[in-house]
Specification:
Largest interface: A-B, 75 and 63 residues
Strand content of chain A: 5-15%
Number of helices of chain A: 16
CATH superfamily of one domain in chain A: von Willebrand factor, type A domain
Shape of chain A: globular
Number of strands of chain A: 17
Radius of gyration of chain A: 26 Å
Helix content of chain B: 25-40%
Radius of gyration of chain B: 21 Å
Helix content of chain A: 25-40%
Largest sheet of chain A: 6 strands, mixed
Order of helices and strands of chain B: EHHHEEHHEHHEHEHEEEEE
Distance between the termini of chain A: 69 Å
CATH topology of one domain in chain A: Rossmann fold
Oligomer: heterodimer
Strand order of the largest sheet of chain B: 3-2-1-4-5-6
Shape of chain B: globular
CATH architecture of one domain in chain A: 3-Layer(aba) Sandwich
Number of strands of chain B: 11
Amino acid sequence: MAVDTAYQPPSPGSDDVDAISEDDRPGPSKRKSKTVRSREHGADESGRQAWEGMYKRSWDVVQEDAEGGLQAAVDSLIARGRRKRALVSETPLRRSIIRHLFIILDLSESVRDKDFRPTRFDLLLTYLRTYIVEWFDQNPLGQVGVVLIRDRLAETLVPMGGNPQDILAALSDKRKLEPSGEASLQNGLLMAKGGMAHLPSSSSLETLTLFSSISTSDPDGSYSIHQLLNDLVQARVRSSIISLSGEIKICRQIAERTGGKFGVAMDEDHLRELMWESIPPPAQTVAASTMGVRSALAAGGSKGAVGKGKPPPAGDLMIMGFPTRLPTGGETMCVCHGLLKKGGYMCPRCGSKLCDVPTDCEVCGLMVVSSPHLARSFWFLFPVANYDTLPYDVGMQEFGSLSPTCSGCDVDFPTVDELGLNMGVAAQADGVSPTGRYRCAKCKSDFCGDCDLYIHDTLHTCPGCSQ
Amino acid sequence: MTTPSASFPRSTPPSLLILILDIHPLSWSLLSSIEPPDPLDSPPPIAPAEHHYLLARAPIGPITLPDFLNVLLVFLNSHLASRWGNRVVVFAASAGKSKLLYPTAGGYDGEEGPKERPNVYSPFGMLDQGLERGLKDMIAEEETRMDDQDGEGLNDPPAIVSAMTKALCYINRHSPPPSSESTAPTNETRILVINATPGAGSNSSDNSSSTKSGGGGMRGGYVGLMNCVFAAQKAKIPIDVLTLPPASTGTEAPIFLQQASHLTEGVYWRWNGRGGLLQYLHTIYLAPPALRQTPFSQPPQDAVDFRAVCFCHHDVVDVGFVCSVCLSIFCKPLPVCQMCK
């Protein structure tokens, strides 16, 4: 205990001096983030540090229009920023949708540092709560567990589960999350790996470590963190690490070799950005074997083969049941807890009542999911193609035949006269339609910028094509 | 705010009601020819309570679109009247096409605007005339379109999904979601779907003819509808559904619309065919969502069928084969997933 209390984490400033060498710059600059964002901080493209770079005179970019107003310029800047977000790559990716994630949370003394406001500890917990909600929103079939590392030990705060409420409840109980001692990365990863050992290889196994210390104090013995790294690679556990203090070599190594990401958070917003990058399902790099049909059939034929505890057979097609939700009338016995409960779901194969989905049916072993759970991932499968911008001259030629309003929200498009006025500003914007119209290549309907963004960001269905 | 059961807001923000009206000609011709079922078919309850008895005695009768519109206009007017600032937007979905009916986008293109009638509250008058006009225009358009295509598109299912996407775009444009959680409550928005097509989004998969009309409608529709549902869920917009074809016609419930209302915490209700539509509309759908549990109450929600549509034959399945990578649903085991190969 004396050691722990005496331990004072070095301030990040002094650490940075020896940590940063020629090629060990803070993380995010190395791997370029997918979404191009204007970043005022961090190393710039030429490889210099942010403070060495030229100051960008952002006001020079803005141009006034004929009357000296800035509204048009501001609008086009906003539109440009939005377009950049909207233009996603259209290359088809094989994404892992059934994900299993262990969040390894560093609760060593160092999380009491106040370089992140209010403290690293409070910030991490606040972010984690929203992160969990968002994560389950995008990965409805995923499961999350939380492992804490403190006092050189690892403990499972929440075992792997699919209920965000459990995790949120555990994360809101601060008495159980008291930081103390030093962190052992090896123990944390080992615990997480052990917790996922029973899972099939068809799902994506991941860990996300939020590492606040600048060193890891691992157990003495024959099994070192390097051997653990090899084991992680073998078990295909994608380990991402976000460091709050500085770059640590072993962390980068682990992340790179297991196919995860490593990043150093520079400030509160950057930490959030790094965490949120891990929410969308990762592209699957390893092609799964296609031997699965037989095992899926076997599972379908022999009831109870996929009993509780045993993993479903690894393979491409899984057999799943879509239940009926019972009305909340009287109380009936459920098969999962043996308790009288109202409501619930009925297994389509054996007709037993389950409390909650997704789950494995206790009686027949069928994987019961509600179809909306699956449907949440459909937009990955049927993405809306990016809309084309309508060039100015084309817009002029066909003007008579164009629909006067947006096919989505029925707002009026700018007329010829209005277009002429704003010509100077609108034409230079990249990716922004000079006519204010974005056209679906399939159904030839025109949409306004707002709808374009909404359709591609949230709705994922083209109103024109669906009719 | 003393007890949770009795707590409800003293006042609600102005509310925007987006109505999606299914005007599919075939569905309405079906609705207007409902025949009362054979009384021998359904034995009366053993010891009927008085209201049961009355309800069972009310005849099951047909309803026509003009009749229903009368009812609907009263309902929409009472929505306008129930709070200052309430607004109504009406979309119509016909066979394979959807359109914004009210408010008319480009104003009145004709020579005369809406006639101001001195004895009518002007928002009522504007709504009544605008809706009537929009509906007449659309029906005329549809008629010429059907004539041009020799009734080709008549068997298309109603474009409810398209209307819903447009409605969501409209909401997004006119009342965008608040940027942060802390801001004051903005306008309340809800979508009411009046569905006249039996088993829209569902079909009995055994015969092929129904696959064409019902299952084909969900070709892109199932995925589209689900996407709409999630977008609405994100924006906290309840989708209420009123299904008109009564159960006595022997048609299936539209399970996907039912799922939609369940997922967005809206109200799903199926008309029993025994009249009283105005009363039902008022008691079930008029109250803003914040007041629905208390002091008002909702009809008990039926069992919700969470079946899905398979991607290969567009059949409704309850046990399916799901690709472990991309979660596509198939009704038969395949060696390689068709969607992600």
